[in-house]
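Sample A.
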Amino acid sequence: MQVAIQAWLDKQCREISGATGAVVLVLPRNSTSLVPAAHWPTGGLPGEGLAAAAKAAYESQQPLSQPRLNGAERPTPLGPMISCPIQVKGRTVGAVAVGFEPNVTLPPQDVVDTIVRGAGSFESYVRQSSVSAGPAAGTQPAPVSAGFAPSDMTRTQPGAMANASAPDPTRTQPGSVAGATSAPAGPSSGIAGAPVPTLRNEVGERTTELPGSNAARILQLLATVEAHERFTEAATAFATELAVTFGCERVSVGLSGRRHVRVEALSHSTEFHANQGLLRDIGAAMEEAIWQGATLVYPLPDGAQPRVDRAHADLAQRHGSAWIGTIPLVKAGRACGAITLERSSAGGIGRAELTLCENIAALLGPLLEVKHAVDRPWPAKLFGALGEALAPFFGAGHLALKAGVGIALAVLLAAALIPTDYRVSAPARLEGEVQRVLVAPAEGYLKQAHVRPGDRVKAGQLVAELADEDLKLEERKAQSEVSQLENSYGSALVKQDRTEVAILGAKLDEARSQLALIQARLQRTQVQAPFDGLVITGDLTQSLGAPVKKGEALMTVAPEHDFRVILEVDERDIADVNIGKAGSLALSALPGDTFPLEVNRITPVATTAQGRNYFEVEAKLKGNAGELRPGLLGVGKVEAGSRSLLWIWTHRVSDWLRLTLWSWVG
């Protein structure tokens, strides 16, 4: 792939007149930064700023042009640059940037069009180059190289079919990167010394197609499997065709059972169950590959990752196989079986052939497993599933499981037969039996707060004050008016002017009434506690000087030792709660103590809150309340008769099922 991209860039630069340098950046898989894949000319260095221009085109997802920079803008003149993103199957995978001579102000439009058309031809050019680089038809498979390590199970997926062709020259192998051309270091490009990336995962899988010979093999195997309705026939034909295709003496197909892998088919044979030793050894080799989740090759090639291959060695020693390869079959991310290939010659099969075989297994393995499941008759499927589920209870062993099931059945039987007290449980809150809200007597400003929530108060105790300066001024004014009117009234009496006496007497009464009203308002600015109790709400210490409106709640006072309990009983349980029933209360603040209570009122209207309907049930605490405080939360339980434990545990579900069934069929 590296060679194909460099060839594409060389071809484009030869067609662009006036180009002085070019670079191609790509984004490899599992990476977040662009890296150089090719540059032109190959013997020199990429032009300054080309990498930045390519990154800008990649980020903007459109062609960009950068004009010439010289004079005051840049001490060293820099020619114009044209950059364009590169797409593969509609996805942007990189960008190309081309630089020109500093004496060019801006390249002609036909040059820009050539660069854009060239970027559009990137995908087809690389695909054609990858196909033409594959092995020629009729060539012999290459032997396993010293550096070849069989892939793990993650490669045996249908998505890997794009690489079933000949080895990709950009595949990361020991020594493959050493001969690759490194990206030259530019003075300010930011990519100096970066190694040339492997492009197979990012571009190759999207552009490389299967050669006709490999595609024909896969189609032939698929047709062979689909031509047989019965699983045994399909698996045998598949194994035989696979043996002929890859020149193996024996190919085995096995599927995972409940405990072990069962060999279901052997190539060139329909009656193979007599040789149990061979089947047991092949099954052990398959289990070995499935357990490690990887394709296993025996003998292990030089330089390959070490694997456990004891079962493969036993199979080769006992049955004369010089080369063995086992490929797991994977369905939905879970190993469902394996394929084992055996050769009597020590050469084995080539790397490309083994990769093709892995992809065949990834494609056809799930199909074979589905055929095996479908081939079973439905009674066998049903009884097989029941047998697998019940086998631990009736077979040998599993004593702990059997004992646990026996104990569970005994507990359920006892729960169904033994009655016990049933109590309705509901969230509860504690409130004062009487609560008095102290409000602002008139509009004004808060002057002082003498108590806070939690403080005890006495009847008549001053708890808050409102600003009274304006009222005191009005009081003085009213007193002055009363004094003047009294003097005038006395003078009128001396003069015995009846008319004047009557008028002044009326005005004097009015002034005295106004003075009394002002004095009453002054007295009401002193907010006092109505009775002995506890302040439960209204912290005014942070609101001194704030305006208040007439009737605005300032604080709430409740008796200190007289409480009531409010239970929020769910609508499904309200039928079991009656007035006079006893119960108990446990508070979150005192979880170790319970307080007796008695139901004395049930609110006849439901309340909807927090996604549920409930009825408020009022109960009175019996006995000494101790140091309780209004506002405490907890759980209350009310006695509701006797029920079995099983009913108590399951009545919610049974009630829901009855209601649901009635809504469907009632």
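Sample B.
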Amino acid sequence: MKKQKKLIFTATLTMSLFILATTASFFTTPRSWKFLYDEHQASADIAIVYIDDFSLSEEGLGRWQDWSREYYATVINNLSSAGAKVIGIDMLFDSKSQGISETALGTTLTSNSTAQGLADDLVTYLGENHPDDIALANAIESAGNVFLVKLPTKESISIISDSAKDAGYTNAALPQSETIYAVTGLDSFAKKIADYFAGTTLPIETTEENQMYINYTGGTGTYDYFSFYDIYSNNFDKNAVKDKIVLIGGGSISLQDHYMVPLGDLSMYGVEIQANAIQTILDQSFLKNTSTTQNAIIFFALALIATTTFMYLDIWAALAILILLSLAYYLGAETAFRKGLILDLTYPYPLLALSYTSSTLYRYFTEIQDRKALKSAFSHYVSKEVVEEIAKNPTALKLGGEQKNITAFFADIANFTGWSEGAKPEELVTQLNEYFSALSEIVMRNQGTVDKFEGDAIMAFWGAPLALENHAELACKTALECRYRLEELNNTWDRKINIRIGINSGPAVIGNIGSRDRFDYTAIGDNVNLAARLESINKFYATQIIISENTRRAIGNSFELRRVDLIRVKGKSEPIEIFELLAEKGKLPEKTLALLKEFDQAVDLYRAGSFAEAKNIFAKLLKEVDHDGPTQTYLTRIENLIATPPKNWNGIWTFTEK
């Protein structure tokens, strides 16, 4: 009887899993193959011209918003003269040029001796076609091989689009968090360029929605590339673009033309995504999904093998089979992917997991009671959130962890040794307990996890165990609330407490870390260490709350900040921008905001090596705000830099102590 029930359960579970997975895959086709890409040789026939940071700098061509379209015309002329076979411009010129540039205005003023001549020249810039647009259109028409992008509802203005060889569709504007797996297939920018370069109409593999999956060659920087400014200045190797496809597009974060791509956690500029799409067509290395029938056969085979195995083997042998089946399927998916066939990686693993879980529960149902006992025991000494995580996944109760995107927070009492001198032990402990209780309450109220107390320091983090999209914002809000609460407490204490807080955001390893007998749920990693370093960095600037550029990017414009410095902390080679967290947005008086702008100007001069000019502004600011820590730090530092001018100054200040 028991064997019959077990057999019926096995057959029922197999069919249930098969139907569930097949039905789910029929209605949705999640893109789950981001880890299957392997790097392969980028085409030597494709080169990219990036509008990079240098091109946008004062030493280059200045702000992109101020660019004349004559810049593009010059670049096209130079590429055409160098023998580029195809030129693709990954940007829209969907509005007419306006006004007159400073250069053109200067030329007009100096080249006309009469008022009438000056008026005639100025009227030209107000005519139907702006001279800058005419110059770009002429360059495109003269080259004869320029392709533009367009959208279903938008394209470049007619004078420019009519001059191009052709224009092809590109993906509509997407959020930068969107992972780009595919581009428009037929009649696309990539397809038209590939066909022109090949001299024939190439076949293409697309989905029912006319999307072509991109077979990425590798991460960013894979293709040969040049700076827009170098091409504009005609300062480049002409042979490097001769007979090639040359794509022009954004190559600076400031242009906001970069997107996530399915290569781990990498982002890529839009123009390089186009390059990968073009190579996919040229190489005919297309990717396509398995059919519904193929998926059904795979799901049934997996459900049958897995459920039969899990129901009749002991728990550890079944677990080993689960791992082997998972690994075998993944290796099979890798092999198929290299041949252009995309096996579903979304549903087979839940299918296997459900099969294993259901089989195990059927045979070992009493383990539910064990989980209740486990939850009851741990609720006495870990947070409620951690208890819930353990209850959902008891196997997590072991050494190890996972990487999550978090914001780490370190708070420390400034000059703790001096503060505690002469205090009675019982008074010291009472005040510290009151201090820690106040800060902990604020952390937990703002959905943070209090990690640990170390002496007079408190460590917390946001984003684990529960994921939070606004973890950086919550950490900054907590820091300000801690400062306000401490001001209230100091009004009641004889011994005043001043704190320093450091905040940084980024990936960290989260989990149970320690020995086999004793471990803690905590966060570790470089980003956690940096938060601790930033807490200590406060003392060099006499500030209270320092956040990193990582956190600055994550919080957007939610808070009032002061850009403090570009530093390299001890033991690290990469510099990082740091900011002082001052208040919530809109909470600072206008005078303070004006002084912050002057401070920012002084920092720019300092980084540019204009120490004397920077010193003058800092000195002026110190008269306005006496005892301002960062200002005093800069004045002292600049005095030393003027006395001993540095070699190869880059604006980065390296700390040699923690």
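B remarks: The chain has a mean pLDDT of 85. The CA atoms of residues 19 and 55 lie 56 Å apart.
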